[in-house]
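During the reporting period the student researcher (J.K.) took over the structure-prediction task from the postdoctoral fellow and processed the backlog of single-chain submissions. One of the processed entries is reproduced below for the supervisory committee.
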Amino acid sequence: MVAADKVDVKSRVFNELQEELHKLGEPAYRAGQIADWLYQKRVKSFDEMTDLSRDLRAQLANQFAFSNINVIRVLGSHDTTRKFLFRLSDGNLIESVLIPASPALYGGSSDRRTICVSTQVGCAYGCKFCASGLEGFSRNLSANEIIDQIIAIEDATGEKIDNIVFMGMGEPLANFGNLMRAIRIINAPSGLGIGARHITVSTSGLAPKIKKLADEPLQIRLAISLHAATDQVRNQIMPINRKYNIEALLSACDYYAGRKKQRLTFEYILIAGLNDADDQAYLLARHARKLSAKVNLIPYNTVEGLPLARPSRNRQEKFLSILRAHKIAATLRREKGHDIDAACGQLRLQTSRNERRRMITS
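J.K. obtained the following structure tokens:
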């Protein structure tokens, strides 16, 4: 386990690394050498940074932690979607999903590779359709633990990730400081070099944090996990709506869109008999039109222990047709990972429960 008093080196943005090296009496270019070892050569320890002196490597090891996350399970899908389960240095489990690009995410055909990244261990927001919060909230991920998910998947697959979506376990905006630190490193040429417009942050509706994100200089994309078009329905499935209702959420979205000058996306999981009625589609069209937002419809991925189901294919298509009839840019996500339980938190939940069962019976 990483010492609590040490900051991981991959949680330092470039200028902070330069400042730390300056304190050690080292020239500024050393920061570039270290960043190259971290993000290009992907070494696993300071000892491998062979163009640094042994004394400097020892000083760095004394000052910084250097953690790595371990892949403990990978589930592959017939459609090339793959889910990765990681164990962190403190034993906690998190997961990420590697998905092929699709019009549902980007509005056009592409060969891009996208990773859905987690920002917390568990989740405190209790959305009724999601497995991430079924065992509660444990802690925020540090910036390096966020970044390490991307590095680990690239190393495991040999594939270059060029799109990041913060739609994995947890509420990204509830871990705002570490999220933004990770994004700056992901975006920086000295880091992973992924453009801001290829980074999407998803939120369940933390209206004040949406405005705070809008004031950040990077042109990050925003996706809203809306999942209902009225407070009556949204209150049933998303407790956050009781604090920031749809009116407050859409007001924050309007502020974001005005600052960023880019289109928002409404993520909308279709759940049979709950939010898939025609009236929800008509109201969703109205909300989207006001903000010139895109809508990404996602048929519900069933979660063991939750009494919810996906609508029939005909109902999905009818909902989509209503949006399109109102000139809304809407897509219906096709099967991606349904066969591997790719919804957020499912693999972690299953693995955690199995490990506890083995401990009890052993």
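The committee noted the following: DSSP finds twelve helices and 14 strands in the chain.
J.K. will present the remaining backlog at the next meeting.
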